[in-house]
């Protein structure tokens, strides 16, 4: 009988037909579309890159993965609800989010007077300028409406009077860091007063304002120096160590990991990496509910002559 050969030919013909159908353009297997990038993260990055190009590398290295994953899940949930015919409520992030169980979250620095004994404050201070990098720091502060204190050397204020004037015009606080960044403890009383007075004249000549507080270079301080300075001496409680590692990522992480309410933070606008780190430091401080203020604001006053301050008021 020829039944077996007939079955074989039938199966072979069916296989050929099936392969032809699969190869046809109309039956090409669909290719899964790649998920679109997070729109909010992309928009944020584009805005930052357009307005502050100097921080593109820092933004690119910022850990967006967790946020992108949350946005992807949110988008998928929205698609599922739309398919079900249900309407999803769109949540618009406000300038401040506050619930009884969480700290407030700020997008921009709160304006107006602040009592740091009632709210979380941090004072960012920048030493060794003014220099061209200072303009990048000023741009980052202006972006979020933050206030800071700049301890200038007399030599730099004389070399860049226009930048010193920009710091003052932006409403930031001015401090005296000595003329030549010399260790105050190695100077005689007369030499110390000359360092401070020459610097005060240089800053006032450039800005129209005379600094009322000072900071000793290297943090070198004795009771004799603080008394001879005839003004308050400002130290710090949080050291970014930016002068040591000169890495924007390390500077940012060091500040965020060690800051606490009432902290006075040591930074140096002399360092290019600090200028790059400043926008990210501000972003995270505001997200943690901090008011970014000047030294005078965090102390609650302008300081007493002969006194040394390392931190300020806290709730």
What does this structure look like?
The N and C termini lie far apart (about 100 Å). Helix 5 links the parallel strand 3 and strand 4. Helix 5 packs parallel to helix 12, helix 7 packs across helix 8 (about 190-205) and helix 11 packs parallel to helix 12 (about 270-285). The protein has helices at about 5-25, 40-50, 55-60, 65-85, 130-145, 155-160, 160-170, 190-205, 225-230, 240-245, 250-260, 270-285, 295-300; strands spanning about 95, 105, 120-125, 150, 175, 235, 240, 265-270, 290-295, 310. Strands 3, 4, 5, 7, 8 and 9 form a 6-stranded parallel beta sheet that branches. It has a two-stranded antiparallel sheet with strand order 1-2. The protein has a domain at about 120-310: Alpha-Beta Barrel (TIM Barrel), CATH 3.20.20. Helix content is about 45%, strand content about 10%. The model is unreliable at about 1-70 and about 85-100 (pLDDT under 50). The chain has 13 helices and 10 strands. With about 325 residues, the chain is α/β, with parallel strands linked by helices.
User: Architecture of the domain at 119-309 in CATH?
Assistant: Alpha-Beta Barrel
Based on CA atoms alone, the radius of gyration comes out at 30 Å
Report the uncertain regions.
1-72, 86-101
Order of helices and strands: HHHHEEEHEHHEHHEEHHEHEHE
What is the CATH superfamily label of the domain at 119-309?
Glycoside hydrolase/deacetylase
Give the CA-based shape: globular
Distance between the termini: 100 Å
Percent helix range: 40-55%
